[in-house]
Amino acid sequence: MPVLTSLYLCNSTVYAAVGSPTANGAKITAACQTELPEGCLINGIITNEAELTAALQGFFAANELPTQRVALAVGGSQFNHRVLTLPRMSEKKRAAVLTREFSTGGADVTAPLDDYMLLSTDKKTKADTVLATRVESAVIETYINLAAACGLKLYSIDLALAGQIKLVRATPELAGKSFVMLQFDGDSLIAGLYEKGQYKYSTRSRLFNPRGTEASGTEIGQKLSGLIQFQTAAKSEHPIQAVYFGGSTAADLAVCTPACRALQLEVAAYPETENIKLPEGIRLADIALAAGNLIGR
After folding, report:
1. CB 121 within 8 A of CB 127
2. What is the dihedral of CA 263, 267, 179, 15, to 10 degrees?
């Protein structure tokens, strides 16, 4: 497959991973990141297109990134997603079911775009478990316009959470394990709960304390405690064993470690895997969602 430039836009940073999907993961030949001008992107909403355009143009030029096949990963509270289990049906009928599920579940918008990602299939019942997503079409149009202004040719736009799920799938070291993956996004935190290696639930929340402080470590520990309680309330037979960090600094990991250990959780940066080939000096944890976005569904 031709080379893609995977671009993950978060609140304060843009991450890029250049490479191609492979049978089991991805081969990445270059990766980089840079800080974005403050306030030009808030919770996935473009608030200053001119500054963001200039920043991205400078980023692509400085790092000599390919501009012809850009796979964009985005997220934010404007993306409504939920896990659904559906019987086997045609794509036309499935689209109608998604429309009905979102419209009756409080996610009715003016001009919706619905999509889904297959998570698993029950071999006995042939039912599909999917991650369904709805977003206002105007939100996607802002990203299309941004790419055009930057001189980028879009290959795809996908939910950042999908990149996390694909990354976990491509990490056999985590197969069968129950854990939380924390993805730092400026002053926001994406927490994905995985049971026996399979995506189950996620939250996106704001961090009120400055990152890298003891107060931040305590706050994140409280969020993890809430996920443990959620897992317990669901009467799961698979307690959370570990927490893995993506997009974090050494200070983030250091201040969170005491709270994680108090909850009897293993704590570490997201692990390396042979299925994701990386350039020398690049850690998978640092570019987790950009890397995951390269992986085929």
Report:
1. yes
2. 130
Nearest to 220 by CA among 270, 163, 263, 177: 263
Q: How many domains, in total, are found in the chain?
A: 3
Query: Which residues, 6 or more positions from 179, have their beta carbon under 8 angstroms from its beta carbon?
Result: 194, 240, 241, 242, 243, 244, 266
Share above pLDDT 90 across residues of the chain, in percent, rounded to a whole number: 86
d(CA 96, CA 82): 16
The owner of tokens 């030029």 is 61
Domain that holds residue 118: 80-136
Question: Facing residues of 194 across strands?
Answer: 179, 199
Q: How far apart are the first and last CA of the chain?
A: 14
Give CA–CA dist 216/264, Å, rounded: 19
3 state SS of 125:
coil
User: Shortest CA distance to 41 belongs to which of 1, 71, 72, 85?
Assistant: 72
CB 34 within 8 A of CB 185: no
Asked if 92 and 195 sit in the same domain, the reply is no
65 and 144 in a single domain? The answer is yes
Shared-domain flag, residues 153 and 9:
yes
Q: What is the mean pLDDT of residues 267-280?
A: 96
Residues 6+ apart with CB under 8 A from 50: none
Structure tokens at 282: 């690049």
| Predicted confidence (pLDDT) per residue in 137-149, tens digit | 999 999 999 999 9
Q: Are residues 108 and 8 in the same domain?
A: no
Amino acid at 176: G
